[in-house]
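Input/output pair, single chain:
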Amino acid sequence: MYIPNVNRATDREAVIAFMRRYSFATLVTARDGLPVATHLPFAISLQDEAIRLKSHVAKANDQWRDLEAGRVLVIFSEPHAYISTRHYDHQTNVPTWNYVSVHAYGKGRLLTQPEQALQVVDAMIGTYEADYRQQWEGLPEAYRHKMLNGIVAFEVRVTELQAKEKLSQNRSAAEQGRIIDALASSDDSGERSIAEYMQRSRRKG
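Output:
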């Protein structure tokens, strides 16, 4: 990912927090020189300081066959907001887009044992709806087995993080303030989130 120095995010804890907040991501692999992508929720954990991304795909989605063949990319890419030139001090400007994005590169590993798939499902339940665990555990064994048999669980051990925060860092304090005020009052939740990240960036700067 192209990242100018002013937009490079280096706070690892903040980057992981972003990934957890926007954990519905895009899994990208390659086959015969062509990219293949699937949109998935991920459970994100730290093991011995290594970031591990766990999820599963439908067995019918044969992207799982490529997971161990080469480097895997998982893209976390929310939120974003259009930035109008009306917030700038001078007319000689063009509109742009503010956003936060993380590219996590790593090594994929299939989790083929039934207990491993169960662990991934448990991690997903814990991440997204802990209250569902009781219902899941109370389902008929045959039904749970059928559901587990229809998926392929996997994990990605992250070896490289590329994180970008394009948040008008190149604009004046006054321009940034006007952009934040406009986005913070928007009806769009993504725009409000960008205002939040811009405020954090200004405090760090």
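The mean pLDDT is 95. Residues 182 and 195 are 8 Å apart (CA to CA).
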